[in-house]
Amino acid sequence: MTENTTKPVSVYAEANPNPESMKFVLNSVLLGEGGSVDYPSVESAAESPFAQELFNFDYVSRVFIASNFVTVTKNTPIAWAQLIPELRTFIKSYVEAGGPIFLGTPTTSTAASAAAEVPSDLSAEDTEISQKVIDLLENYVRPAVEQDGGNITFRSYKDGVVTVNLQGSCSGCPSATVTLKAGIENLLKRMVPQVQEVVAEGVVL
């Protein structure tokens, strides 16, 4: 008789600053370390059967997947206390059954991919500043944002303005603008004097 050595999957829910999002943390890996994917709609989640299944819950409006957690954003006034048991049971059962998280290799957001997107026609100074900003975001900002169930990626640097993209629980979070200005902007201004302002795509201040 062969003993089943499959490790049981545990899932626990963890609140974050966005009241419309909930972070579900697992004791197993969903995505390679350092990468993340953000699906704002079921159409965008074509590469992830796992995310598509989550979108089958009619109150799920966004799915963000990182190393060992998935952040779910809801579009209903129903309290999380009523939704968590159902989602936790589904996630646990799906992962334990070996359901596919992705079809092939997902398109992830990482510092490396951000660096690759830095336009080649920038001046040498702007290219150097962009790289400094990317390094700071990856090493100091991203780990803290990920703790809250979200992600931040570099988009561009021009004329003293850094543009970033907020994903997961950070998207639509009431405190995102405070974090952006009081936290991230102050850090970058202090570490990179050329930076005058930090703005986020799609976030109106």
Automatic annotation (TrEMBL):
Q: Which PANTHER family match?
A: IRON-SULFUR CLUSTER SCAFFOLD PROTEIN NFU-RELATED, NFU1 IRON-SULFUR CLUSTER SCAFFOLD HOMOLOG, MITOCHONDRIAL
User: What InterPro entries does the annotation carry?
Assistant: FSCA_dom_sf (IPR034904), Nfu/NifU_N (IPR014824), Nfu/NifU_N_sf (IPR036498), NFU1-like (IPR035433), NIF_FeS_clus_asmbl_NifU_C (IPR001075)
Q: Which Gene3D superfamilies match?
A: Fe-S cluster assembly (FSCA), Scaffold protein Nfu/NifU, N-terminal domain
Q: Show where the Scaffold protein Nfu/NifU N-terminal domain sits.
A: 11-98
Highest classification ranks of the organism: Bacteria, Pseudomonadati, Bacteroidota, Cytophagia, Cytophagales
User: What is an example of a Pfam family matching this protein?
Assistant: Nfu_N
The organism sits in which domain of life?
A: Bacteria
Which SMART domains does its entry note? Nfu_N
State the family it belongs to.
Answer: Belongs to the NifU family.
Q: This protein is called what?
A: NifU family protein
